[in-house]
Amino acid sequence: MNLQAYVILCITTLIWGGNSVAGKLAVGHVSPMMLTGMRWVIACSILLAFAAPQVRRDWPVIRKNGALLLGYGLVGFTGFNAFLYSALQFTSAINCVIEQAGIPMVIFVVNFLLFRTKVSPAQIAGFTLTLFGVALTASHGDLTTLLTLDLNKGDALMMAAVLVYAAYTVALRFKPEIHWKSLIAVSAFGALLSSLPLVSWEIATDRMIWPDMRGWVIVAYAGLLPSLVSQILYVRGVELIGPNRAGLFINTIPIFGMVLSILLIGETLQTFHLIAMALVLGGIAVAERGRPKDPA
């Protein structure tokens, strides 16, 4: 048992659960792409102040791996949050946080197909339970809608977010040997650059909403905690126990997100949410207990 990794990853998912709630609170107060872009302006400004010396020291490695590092920002930072904040325009925060539990299943499949990562029968059972929980949430308790692909637009966008972040997590295995400050700084810069076309599109199509007072509070939260603190902690967690096991802790996002959604937004907890939660938590317990002895 790696207690340090478990604590780090639980704090990470608490922040991410709050990010989904913040995105829901942002509806009508700041537009999705503006929120995505502004959070990275804040994050990059802070990183410029304390990460610049380390970036200079790591510059030879950064220059050699620039495309990969900027790509982390494009996919894991901008891509995921653009889909998440867009999804929250059409579906509930509770749905979004439960659906994020599908990320470990995608990580598992990709790692197995591409790298033949060792997987135990218990992990397969756990991932399957999680998948059913996600499917139940995405279908709003009616699994027959999945057969006709009749999904709420927001839930479909959240499924895209799941795929994007799983790809980012798997790709972290290829990160070069550089200091975490340099990794986060260059990735955040990639996120800032890749968010500019999205903001431009929003302005050009008259979808842009400039932040009001609540919007600025949400932008500040997103720029500090989900953009900086959680990313740093998640990278460290992956280093400690690997992407498959670290990805499992994403399944705790529904717990934090559901509680925050009820307390801060007043969203309604429905029966299918409770069933899905039980499946998700059961899945993480089974998969973690039955993991292979030699983690990937």
Automatic annotation (TrEMBL):
GO terms for cellular component: membrane
Membrane-spanning segments: 38-55, 67-86, 92-115, 122-141, 156-174, 183-204, 216-234, 246-265, 271-287
Cellular location(s): Membrane
Family label: Belongs to the EamA transporter family.
Pfam families in alphabetical order: EamA
Keywords: Membrane, Transmembrane, Transmembrane helix
Membrane topology of the entry: Multi-pass membrane protein
Naturally occurring in which organism (per UniProt): Pararhizobium antarcticum
Keyword Transmembrane helix part of the UniProt annotation: yes
Top-level taxon in the UniProt lineage: Bacteria
EamA domain mapped to chain residues: 5-137, 153-286
Protein name (database record): EamA domain-containing protein
